[in-house]
Amino acid sequence: MAGALALLGILNDPGQSAKLLLVAVCDGVVSLFAFLFPWHRTGRNAAAWLGLPAFAVLGLSTWSFGGVATGTGPFLVLLYAWAGLHFPRWILLAYLVPATLAYLVPLIVTDQPESILGSAFVLMPIALAVAMLIEAHARHLRDDRERLARIEQWRSAMMNTLAHDVRSPLSAIQIVLDELREDATGVPARMLDMARRQTARINRLADALLDVQRIDSTGHLKLDRQLYPARELVTDALSYIRVDPPIEVEIDAGTTIWVDKQRFEQVLLNLVSNAHRYGSAPIVVRLARDGDVDRLEVRDHGPGIPDSLRENLFGQFAVGGAEGVGLGLFIVRQLAEAHAGRAVAEARDPGVAMVVTFPVTPDFSG
User: Fold this and answer.
1) Which residue has the higher pLDDT, 69 or 272?
2) Staple partner for 84: which of 38, 128, 131, 173, CB 3.0–4.6 Å?
């Protein structure tokens, strides 16, 4: 900035072009060195050494213009503000000596009066105070960021551990239930079927937790997309849950959809579970083509959702409480975006419709 302003100053005062060019070149050299030097290989505070040549250039500028410090003061404060953003307070205090010399020495050499020299006793405390305030605020922000990073690390480890610890015993339970179901009839068979469905539901919850962890760490999920008969895919997924009255499915025969089957089932079951928990019957599942996307719509006939809440409904932990932790709709949105689609909540009268879009396969022409 100082170098650019010096070059612009040549246009305003051509008679001082040689001095302004000298200042601009010195600023440019310092800036170029700061840009090219591999600071990542040095210590955390190594860049503080840049303050010394910067102060020197400020002193050169004041001396070149016969002791006129009009431009030195603001840039000296700016240098201190930069230091406050990046370095601890002991470096700010250490800067007092070179900063004061850079300001006073050119004034002394050019025989400036005592009133001008005395301005240092006002400028330097102000520059230091500004830098101290910035340093304190920046330090608090860094501490908060480190604390949030530790919390996030703990949360990720907890979710990862929980998901894996849940899956291990579930596998054994699933095997036992399958063995018992082979010979069961009547009421025991229906009870075992219910237990198997709930076991599968817990398994999907563990998968969902792992999905959240993968999304947070990599930002994307790897999908295995294929073309499926939509009605068959939906009815198979809904067989995992039982609600009363039954869920209504409105999908034309012959409709196909290009999705990752496992992820699609997660989306559908999360939406249906959400509608059953917070809405009212009947719950209707529709899937139809709309231009270049397939629209999956899960509608309930409950009281609906306020407009202000609908905008943030698919955020992480946006909704939750005694009946859930608010991850279901967040996972729906992430899985929709992994398919290059989107998830939205649309108002209905009565109720609300959760709509997820899935792009039509590029080579599909039906």
Assistant:
1) 272
2) 131
- Report residue 226: phi and psi, to 5°: -140, 170
> Facing residues of 250 across strands?
286
Place domain 225-359 in its CATH homologous superfamily. Answer: Histidine kinase-like ATPase, C-terminal domain (3.30.565.10)
Structure tokens that stand for 293 in this block: 């996307």
Whole-number percent of the chain with pLDDT over 90 = 18
Whole-number Å distance between alpha carbons of 39 and 232: 59
Predicted confidence (pLDDT) per residue in 109-148, tens digit? 888 888 888 888 888 899 999 999 999 999 999 888 888 8
Residue 347, strand partner residues? 352
User: Which one of 15-19, 41-45, 309-313 scores highest in mean pLDDT?
Assistant: 41-45
Q: Which residues in the chain are classed under CATH 3.30.565.10?
A: 225-359
Token pair in block for residue 288: 């139809």
SS3 sequence of 210-267: HHHHHHHHHCCCCCCEEEEEHHHHHHHHHCCCCCCCCCEEECCCCCEEEEEHHHHHHH
Q: Residue type for 251, please? A: I
305 pLDDT higher than 50: yes
- Whole-angstrom distance, CA of residue 62 vs CA of residue 156: 55
Strands 293-299 and 284-290: antiparallel
| pLDDT number for residue 160 | 66
Hey, which bits of 84-209 come out as E strands?
none
- What is the pLDDT confidence band of residue 213, given thresholds at 50, 70 and 90? low
